[in-house]
Automatic annotation (TrEMBL):
Domain RNA polymerase sigma-70 region: 28-93
InterPro entries the UniProt entry points to: RNA_pol_sigma-70-like, RNA_pol_sigma-70_dom, RNA_pol_sigma-E_actinobac, RNA_pol_sigma70_r2, RNA_pol_sigma70_r4_t2, RNA_pol_sigma_r2, RNA_pol_sigma_r3/r4-like, WH-like_DNA-bd_sf
Source organism: Streptomyces silvensis
Keywords: DNA-binding, Sigma factor, Transcription, Transcription regulation
One annotated GO molecular function: DNA binding
Cited NCBIfam families: SigE-fam_strep, sigma70-ECF
This protein's name: RNA polymerase subunit sigma-24
Length: 183
């Protein structure tokens, strides 16, 4: 046999059945610490947990008159916490997240293009003054970005030869008067 329950009979049942929490405020006062621990287990940040609990309690408050069994309020609020957290997580997939390092490199103000071109030309003139073997090693190591082993393989020499020749070449470049910084 199916019993039809009208809103008047629900109200009568609710008022006649004993309730552990006569008001929403009394429920929140009694259960907030426990519910906050549950919210904290769902989030990493205590502030986010408080916000999550507030949202779940707001949903519970809106549904307070529709909840027939107030003994099951904790389950209702926990479900609201979980559903709210899941919704937040889904929405956050496209949000920005805080991180330790900025994903964008810092923009360094570009210098005068004429000065940059002049420095570039001076660098090539200095490299062209190097002996052919040292010049080849410097170009392969620093312009082609090859490792010492790769440079040695390309030129058919040992890694030690590459290291010493590049070291001597850099020493000559440091001494080149065209490349000395303006002070």
């Amino acid at each position: 046999m199916v019993t039809v329950c009208t809103s008047a009979s629900k109200a009568a049942t609710r008022t006649t059945s004993p309730s552990a929490y006569p008001s929403f405020a009394s429920y929140v006062r009694a259960r907030q610490p426990v519910l906050l621990r549950t919210a904290r287990s769902l989030t990493a940040n205590p502030s986010d947990a408080e916000d999550l609990l507030q949202t779940a309690l707001t949903k519970t408050y809106v549904a307070w008159d529709r909840i027939e069994d107030h003994r099951a309020l904790d389950g209702y609020v926990r479900r609201a916490l979980l559903n709210t957290r899941t919704s937040q997580w889904r929405k956050r997939k496209v949000d920005e997240f805080a991180c330790d390092e900025l994903p964008e490199p810092e923009t360094v103000p570009a210098g005068d293009p004429a000065e940059q071109q002049a420095l570039h030309d001076a660098m090539w003139r200095a490299i062209m003054k190097l002996p052919a073997r040292q010049r080849a090693m410097v170009v392969l190591r620093y312009y082609e970005d090859l490792s010492e082993a790769q440079t040695a393989e390309v030129l058919g020499v040992s890694i030690g030869t590459v290291k010493s020749a590049v070291s001597r070449a850099l020493g000559k470049l440091r001494e080149d008067p065209e490349l000395t910084p303006v002070r």
